[in-house]
């Protein structure tokens, strides 16, 4: 008998039939003798519909009232799912975030969880119920209803799994696991059996939208074993945990790419003390996240800088740079979009010095020039032109031995772990 | 400066435009310097839509989960109304039932309020907010969400007005007050300026659907001054209070009628001890409310009984009577529908002995026979055939001097009270 947390997103409960399918899955676990705690998001378009209604009345509604409004979406989901479970002969009890004991900071629309007091959930479990908890929401010390912001239901599930010491936290979604790269781009992308928290974090931050980074961080910090799997199939999914076993000879786990990239270059910057601090301090206080930063060598006392921001922030970032031109004299600011960041991610990279060279070579062989490079312990990212991105990802996928054809050998002893 | 409770039903907030109109009304009171607490029901068809969704998943959903589901309707209303008030430049804060301090019995779908702790509402009022409270809902000691059952939002408003010692509790609805009879039946029905709690209770119980009897009882018990008025006009409405002033020479306040009536007769009942207790005990334990009971004189040791039930309960009531025929021997059980209960209501009836005779005479003059009669201190009801009900109500309305033509004299000094 295990204690299992299952999390279902909005599309998994988006219709009566899907809700019934989820109820059946929960019943199967109960019938197998497990204790089950389920976290659910708002059904399908509910949240968007509520937002539309609010916009009709107030173009800029107060965050507190928005939280009051949006949390009803998950409350509807948990009540209906509980009813669906009852209708197939099993006991269930639904709980709002505050009923489930979620305490948060006194911040609306993006509160962080400060504490979970799951006493009521344990009582309901002991009485034989499937426990159904509304995702994405909590309550402040003063009894104000809050929401956790984007990815909130993932975070709810992981934090709950940590609080109740669940054996596993299963994240049900519309894909059947984490892939070595986007299967829509690379046909021979393969589903990973295991991945480490850190690798998952790098992939999530780089645009693999399956799991929210905050939830992964929470899982890593509390050592919660995650499984990402499909709500539509019985496939095993991908296990996310501290030490994920690497297949023999494989050092790269996956390849991510992100098209939401712009590069801004500041050319001919005078040798003013603290110039980097001034530029990036000004960008940070405008709320602009800078990703990669490159400084080329100083010539004649002048330097060139380049950095990347998300495409949406490009114009604002140029404005910020122009606004500090009196403090930081420079010759020219230029920008470039139509760029892609391609990244290879893998815990094995640290101890395998040839990994970077192989990436550069594969890109070079396609005649593509690399505009910027950035590295972390387990990641290597290159900024390239957007156009040949599919070719580049495919070439890298093959170069690092990730193509699904090789999965045959994984199907051996590795699959039984 | 007054402290005012305003209650708006579902149709008053059933669309964006209506919601905006309600927000404007609340802003008007705030601008006039009043403190305002608003109780709102779920918008338009929201509750019905939620019930439909639940039925798709479970034909007989658990009451606890139904309460979890349905309370979202009011939570959506309060959040949206608060946003609408903000958008016209006023502060507002919305509260669920539990946030507003409503504690109830541990009963789902029809809980009674046990306590109200309005501290948070006072704090929000003191900070300059219009306070918007979700009607129809509360929380048990154990933190379970409950609903108050039919008429729950009226009860929420009245109980809140009592708890915060409001100067008045205004019930906004789609009619502009309480009428002397149904204006759809009698064109010259007139709006009453005042009515007593007891009169309102008799009228409410008799089918005037404007105010729920439970809310009126609560108002009477806590001496809350109610005003029933239209959310679509600025008309003054009807004031409901302990001592309502009667116009000179008028003893009857209003005339009610109820078509949901069936009569069941048990003929030739043997003279068994406790026969009434057995029959009506059996009906009560089957959850059937009996209204009027008449026993005719005993002949040859056999008696005839007749009683009325609501039309929906007729067949079940006959079943119950048949099921106890071994304990209570009788010759025959018959039933009759196509009946109406017509009632005159007025606090002045007690001290005016000719009132009943006038009713019987007016009905007799129309050639209609009276099948049963029932009285209370301030009410006289007759069961008659359904057919001429409009003629009977019109005739009584005229006989008791209620026709609107006479309202001219009310428009004098009485109107300024």
Automatic annotation (TrEMBL), chains A, B:
EC number in record = 2.7.2.4
Q: Where is the ACT domain?
A: 264-347
Q: Which reaction does it catalyse?
A: L-aspartate + ATP = 4-phospho-L-aspartate + ADP
Supply one GO molecular-function term: aspartate kinase activity
Entry keyword set: Amino-acid biosynthesis, ATP-binding, Diaminopimelate biosynthesis, Kinase, Lysine biosynthesis, Nucleotide-binding, Transferase
Q: What does this protein do?
A: Catalyzes the phosphorylation of the beta-carboxyl group of aspartic acid with ATP to yield 4-phospho-L-aspartate, which is involved in the branched biosynthetic pathway leading to the biosynthesis of amino acids threonine, isoleucine and methionine.
Record's protein name: Aspartokinase
């Amino acid at each position: 008998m295990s204690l299992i947390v299952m999390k279902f997103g909005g599309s998994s409960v988006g219709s009566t039939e899907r809700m019934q399918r989820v109820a059946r899955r929960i019943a199967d676990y109960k019938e197998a003798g497990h204790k089950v705690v389920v976290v659910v998001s708002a059904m399908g378009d509910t949240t968007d519909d509520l937002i539309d209604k609010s916009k009709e009345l107030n173009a800029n509604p107060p965050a507190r009232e928005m939280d009051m409004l949006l949390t009803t979406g998950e409350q509807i989901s948990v009540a209906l799912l509980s009813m669906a479970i009852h209708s197939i002969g099993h006991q269930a009890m639904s709980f709002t975030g505050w009923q489930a004991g979620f305490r948060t900071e006194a911040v609306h629309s993006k509160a962080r969880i400060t504490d979970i007091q799951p006493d009521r959930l344990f009582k309901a479990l002991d009485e034989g119920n499937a426990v159904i908890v509304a995702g994405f929401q909590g309550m402040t010390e003063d009894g104000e209803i809050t929401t956790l912001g984007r990815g909130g239901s993932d975070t709810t599930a992981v934090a709950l799994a940590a609080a109740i010491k669940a054996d596993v936290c299963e994240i049900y979604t519309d894909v059947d696991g984490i892939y070595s790269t986007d299967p829509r781009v690379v046909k021979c992308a393969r589903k990973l059996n295991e991945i480490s928290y850190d690798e998952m974090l790098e992939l999530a931050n780089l645009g693999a939208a399956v799991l929210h980074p905050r939830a992964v961080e929470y899982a890593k910090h509390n050592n919660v074993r995650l499984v990402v799997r499909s709500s539509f199939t019985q496939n095993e999914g991908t296990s996310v945990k501290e030490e994920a076993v690497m297949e023999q000879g494989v050092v790269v786990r996956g390849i991510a790419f992100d098209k939401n990239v712009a590069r801004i270059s500041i050319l001919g910057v005078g040798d003013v003390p603290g110039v980097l601090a001034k530029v990036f301090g000004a960008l940070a206080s405008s709320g602009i996240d800078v990703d990669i930063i490159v400084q080329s060598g100083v010539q004649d006392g002048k330097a060139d800088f380049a950095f990347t921001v998300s495409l949406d922030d490009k114009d604002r970032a140029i404005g910020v740079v122009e606004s500090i031109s009196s403090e930081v004299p420079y010759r020219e600011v230029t920008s470039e979009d139509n760029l892609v960041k391609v990244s290879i991610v893998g815990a094995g990279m640290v101890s395998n010095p040839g990994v970077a060279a192989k990436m550069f070579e594969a890109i070079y062989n396609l005649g593509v020039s690399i505009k910027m490079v950035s590295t972390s312990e387990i990641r290597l990212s290159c900024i390239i032109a957007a156009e040949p991105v599919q070719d580049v990802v495919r070439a890298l996928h093959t170069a690092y031995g990730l193509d699904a054809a090789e999965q045959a050998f994984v199907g051996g002893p590795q699959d039984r772990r």
